[in-house]
Amino acid sequence: MDFSIFNRVAFATALFASFASASAQDLLAKQAPIDRKQKAVDSLAITKLTVKESFENPATDLYTTWNTKSVHCYSNSDIPETYRIDLRGFAMPTSSRKVTSNYGYRASFRRMHKGIDIKVYVGDTINAAFDGKVRMVSYEGKGYGKFVVIRHNNGLETVYGHMSKQLVTEGQIVKAGQPIGLGGNTGRSTGSHLHFETRLVGQSIDPALLFDFANQDIKCDYYVFHRSGKGRAGTKTLASNTAVKPATTADEEPDVVPAKNMKVEEALTGKYHKVAPGETVASIARKLDISVDLLCNANHISRSTRVRPGQILRY
């Protein structure tokens, strides 16, 4: 073969390979933004799907059942040792600031009052406290009257009793602040009011630990639930200055009795401090005349925690 012809063929082959390589690189370069855009679209779609799933099946890490027949249906459910409840994004269930009956043991009735009663008038608007999904809309003549139960994404279930009218249906997705009913005097009630309960897997929590009805605000951004009993029946979280006497049956709530030999930290409940601009954990402790450790333990924070203006601290 003529050597010059061979050189020309080799040169042409190399030139074609170079053009092919350049074209491939150009194609990849043009494709890269498309890939990034597709990934962003896919990520957004996954996020939307996750949000939708959280609304359709709220708090799936806690609840394995969806019961539309009974409010108290968790006697066989596992209760977490601790669980942090996100209270942000709340709405007050009513604009009323008047509490007529607190949570706790009623000696005159020899039973627990598992919620809090707030004065409302017939026809007053009752709102969903958090985003969630309506589990029950029903009537109980000797108890809640016309009531609604909502399961929320933060793990809580809220109960709204004695209403004159329900404005939602079972399985409906609701947003915090959305009207769900009207105040009333139905069921076992001696005057128009809202009976409001906050529960976690059936365990009642004093709503006053979460909501400040007088100031129409929450007590803190997060509330840490602590299981205060070991048995399946009768375990519940109460204010930390109370102790629990175990219930005798699976469906019975435990009575509340004064705790003995309590730690100082456990006795500090019911008082709250709203953080002002420039305040620190140390300066707040000095202002309240308590130790820094005491303040930290009461709020599950550390000495180095940066508190923000408007944050609510318990002491």
3D structure, described in words:
- Strand 7 (132-140) and strand 8 form a beta hairpin.
- Mean pLDDT is 78; it is low at 229-269.
- It contains four helices and 21 strands.
- It is globular, with a radius of gyration of 29 Å.
- The longest helix is centred in the N-terminal third of the chain and has 54 residues, at 3-56.
- The strands form seven sheets. Strands 2, 5, 7, 8, 9, 11, 13 and 14 form an eight-stranded antiparallel sheet that branches. A three-stranded antiparallel sheet has the order 6-12-10, with no helix packed on it. It has a two-stranded antiparallel ribbon with strand order 1-17.
- The chain has 315 residues and is of the alpha+beta class.
- It has helices spanning 3-56, 264-267, 281-288, 292-299; strands at residues 82-86, 99-101, 104-106, 111-113, 116-119, 125-127, 132-140, 145-152, 157-163, 165-166, 173-174, 179-182, 193-200, 203-205, 211-212, 217-218, 222-226, 242-245, 255-258, 272-274, 312-314.
- 23% of the residues lie in helices and 28% in strands.
Question: What topology emerges from the helices and strands here?
Answer:
Blueprint: H1 3-56, E1 82-86, E2 99-101, E3 104-106, E4 111-113, E5 116-119, E6 125-127, E7 132-140, E8 145-152, E9 157-163, E10 165-166, E11 173-174, E12 179-182, E13 193-200, E14 203-205, E15 211-212, E16 217-218, E17 222-226, E18 242-245, E19 255-258, H2 264-267, E20 272-274, H3 281-288, H4 292-299, E21 312-314
Antiparallel strand pairs: 1-17, 2-5, 3-4, 5-13, 6-12, 7-8, 7-11, 8-9, 9-13, 10-12, 13-14, 15-16, 18-19, 20-21
